[in-house]
Amino acid sequence: MTLMWILLLPLLGTLVPLLAAKWNRSACALATALPPAIALMLVLLHTEQVLSGETVRFFLSWIPLLGLDISIRLDGLAYLFSLLILGIGLLIILYARYYLSERDSMPRFYAYLMLFMTAMLGIVLSGNLLQLWMFWELTSISSFLLISFWWHKAEARRGARMALTVTGAGGLALLAAFLLIGQVVGSYDLDVVLASTDVILQHSWYPVLLVLFLLGCFTKSAQFPFHFWLPNAMAAPTPVSAYLHSATMVKAGIFLLARFYPALSGTELWFILVSLTGLATLLIGAYLALFKHDLKGLLAYSTISHLGLITLLFGMGTDLAAVAGVFHIINHATFKASLFMAAGIIDHESGSRDMRKLNGLWQFMPITATLAMVAAAAMAGVPLLNGFLSKEMFFAETLHQHLLGSLSWVIPVLATVAAIFSVAYSMRFIHDVFFNGQPKGLTKTPHEPPRYMRVPVEVLVALCILVGIFPAYLIGDLLHAASASVLGGVVPEYSLAIWHGVNLPLMMSILALAGGTLIYVNRKHLFDFQNSLPDVDALNSFEGGVKSLIARCDQFYQWLDNGSLQRYMVLVLLAFIVLAGMPLLELDTLWGGRDELPIDAVNATGAAMLLIAAFATVVWHRKRVVALLMISVVGLMVSIAFTRFSAPDLALTQLSVEVVTVILLMLALFFLPHKTPKQSEAPRVVRDISIASMVGVLVGSLSYALMTRPLSSISEFFLANAKTGGGGTNVVNVILVDFRGFDTMGEIAVLGIASLGIFKLLTRIPVFKPSSDGEGRPWATERHSLLLSTVSQSLLPLAIMVSVYIFFRGHNLPGGGFIAGLITAVAIILQYIAQGVDWVKERMNVEYQRVVAIGLLIALFTGVASWAFGKPFLTSWFDYFDIPLLGEIELASAIAFDLGVYITVVGSTLLILASLGKMTTSHRPVHKDTI
Amino acid sequence: METLFACCIGFLTACGVFLMLRGRTFPVVLGLTMLSYAVNLFLFSSGRLTLRGAAVLGTTEQYADPLPQALVLTAIVIGFAMTAFLVILAIRARADLGNDHVDGKLPESELSKKESR
Question: Which of A64, A281, A461, A551 is most buried, most CB within 10 Å of its CB?
């Protein structure tokens, strides 16, 4: 549990500065420092365990099915990084207290900083890949907030955006890599993954997942060609740069390389990718750093170069190289953090970071100058400082590798070249700033910073010196434990001595120091050469690239989503043809072994009429009224088909729906043109016919294949239980109101919603009054046929009675709520047609939307009522009663549910038709002749 | 019989799809209606074809499969609701936009034809 607190404390710490904002600045800083300080002590509590090679774990199961757990794991590497993150973090808090001006919001800064600290700790302490990734993304987001802290500056915003884009994209690649690893290994647990080296390396996905993984690492650690975001992130306040770009953010990628070193390294691909990327980054960073006039720019490129060095070490593949890599992580963090802070002090106390203006500061700030000079010397690899030791190890390793076969000698040479430039830019940092004449054009006179602002630098520089002189004594154990977790437990023999005798690495160091001095002295020529090269602004070209990418995507999107329904339909149908056609291609024969029924004359005639009517609908589809008549013939034939094939309920439903539909479409034609203009060109028609035929062939084949296969259905259950369980003999109706009552409930709800939607669509519709039909003929002068109105009036009671009969017999014989509802609706609609809206309204003033609601409520309450008897929703009940005169009568609760269905259907149908019909009559122009 | 039935379903589908690919709302509505006939018949046929076997207990020896029938029954009613909704949408679109093209605007080729007249 103490492990959990290491993570939780900084997280809670994000709130502390916000709460402490009302106190003075020092108190706020002090309060903020408290949680990480306690967390640091908690880490130190585990020192003995970790240094003895133990891994401390904390595990909390969260979503085991997804492999998602809260898992914290503290081993040597995590311990080392936790110390760096918390230790340097505390120094940064102290430093920022003096760095931030009165105008900057200190609580906001500290809150972001703590959030970032939590994220970094989360990365190094995670024992689960998904959890690790979450913290990884959190570092991208919190670093975005930190880099854009001075959001009023355009360059800060742009730099932050660029950092977020690059590292965020890398994060996605990393997520893909982690998901692949999880699939390959079968677990997201870090311990399992690290123990499955062979499985991963031999899997066919290995190259893909390795590349994705490295993309994540390299973007975060600013490796070539993704290095460009780091210099632009220098727009951040200096404490942020000192923290993010020395010990934390950019080290996260390196950390990941080290973390997964046991699981992913050891292949040719790893060596080539990692070492060459590292080498390129090392050289480019070191070379470009020399030409930066901005102090922080120089340090930024130097950071890139050192990160490249560490990456190269991890790419060499020898155990000793990995140890050297870990060692350089520590050393780089200490000297680079102190250099950034020194640069911040210079900026703060002299008002400029431009090395062309900054000269001869030694006389103004001798203590800071001394500190900066020591740190810069460590960066250059001067003996007796920590940078020298790891650089020696690096040189030695470059001599022992065989990465490039017979060309391997190139690597030590290039490493020396990079070291030469490293010495040169370090010298520039020292000589150009602190000596080299007098300051030029500074706005204020430089002076020493406040006492405590210097303390963090002093601490770090002291560490540089102490580690440089007593390496084995100070960090021997730590390095051993961290290397052990990188190498999977076995650490090779290595020596941390300062003096190894006169050997090749020492020669390389001496060459680098001498060469660097030489280059620095002759830098003028090099500067002239560099100035003659075209200047590439990474920020502008990056943003230009992003913009053109967005423009391309937009173009593609406009092309794909062009607003044409016909086009979408074609795409959907083509997809259907492919998806439905593929399985059919693999089927040997369509016939599934079931004998066909014989064709009789009635069925053949029906089918012929259906086909002819359907064809006629298509042929005459531009004459809309004719097409409507034809399609109603199709509907009629369909309902006859239902009758023939033993589905009387369906036949009745289809028939009544058909009537309602035709009336509806007739009404609709009042508002729509009566003819469709000829529009489609011949090629379009050919295309549509081809698509339609293909879909038709596929659906027909599917249906044939389905029908000729033997049936095994769950319907046996319904047939067996309809009478005993549902109390009815019409199984279809019992299924509707009882077995699958919940489905029916949903379906009448859909019906109700559709009718309400229509009701709303028709309100406040712009009035549209066609005074004649499409061909200019006026509407019929006789508004209501006398014959029809007389017949319809006498028909109404009859029709209602039929529907009541159909409703009640529905449980045992074909019928039921749906059909009865439709019949009632048709009967009432007939009154509308015959007598007109006003006539009906006088006699039956009902708001149909209320009817729909009542129907739904009845159905709902029938369902809920079964709760009162302790039964699940919609459990039905029935019993038989012997009533004198009437005989035995069955009463079932399902009848009440069916009543709900009935009322909903009546209400919805009338709501739809009456709302539409109302508009035709009330706005229908009365022709002059009639008056 | 099954062959004929399958042919009918296929033909109805083809007609429905062709109409749905038209550019004006009314043929699309017709196409959708036609397609829902086909779909209902298709679903119905998944219970296999049975002659003289209505699923009313005690009336026959061999019952037709009642489950697809129950599903299709509600499908018919909902299909009506959807057709109605579409029709009203088409009317509303014509009233608001002044044309009955499915995209809410006439294609450019037609507009230029109109202007040249």
Answer: A281
